[in-house]
Amino acid sequence: MSLQPYSVIFPEKEEPVMALQLDRKTGKIPKGAYGFIELYCTDKECDCRRTTLFVLNEKMQEKAVISLGFDPDDDMAGPFLDGFYTQSPYAGHLLDIFVELINDNPEFLDAMHRHYREVRTKVEGKKYRGKPFPKAGIYERYVTEPPELPGEFMDIMKVMGASGTKEVSRQKNTRAKQATTNGIRAFADRYFASRNQSRFDVHHAIQDDLRRYILDHETFALEISALLAELFSNESTDDNRIDAALRMLLDVLEILRVELERERSDSTEHMERLQNTLAQKIYVECGDTNLCAAVSYILLQSRVELLPVLHSANNQRLLLDAHSAGLRDSPPEEILDGMFKSIEDMGTDSPFEALENLLQILALGDPEMQTALCDNMLHADSKLVRDAAALMLLHPMPDVRLGVSRLLAADSSRITPETLRRLIITRNWFQDDIRKNIDQAVTHARRSRVECAQLSKSPATTVYASPVDGAFAQSFQVISPDGKGYFSCAILLKQGTGIADAFVIPLSTKNELNRFLDMMKQEGAFIESSPEYLDQRVCHGLAEGAMLGNAPIFWLAHVAELLGKDQWKAVPFDAKRELAVMRAELERKAPELLADKSRKKALKDSAEWCDEHHFANSWFEDNAEVDKVISAVFKKKRNKPDAEWSAMCAIIENVLEKRRAIWLERLVLNALWLKSAKRPPLPWHQMFHLAEAVADSAIPLAGIPLMESVAIQSLEAYLSRREDEGYW
Question: Is 117 a member of any domain?
Answer without folding.
Answer: yes
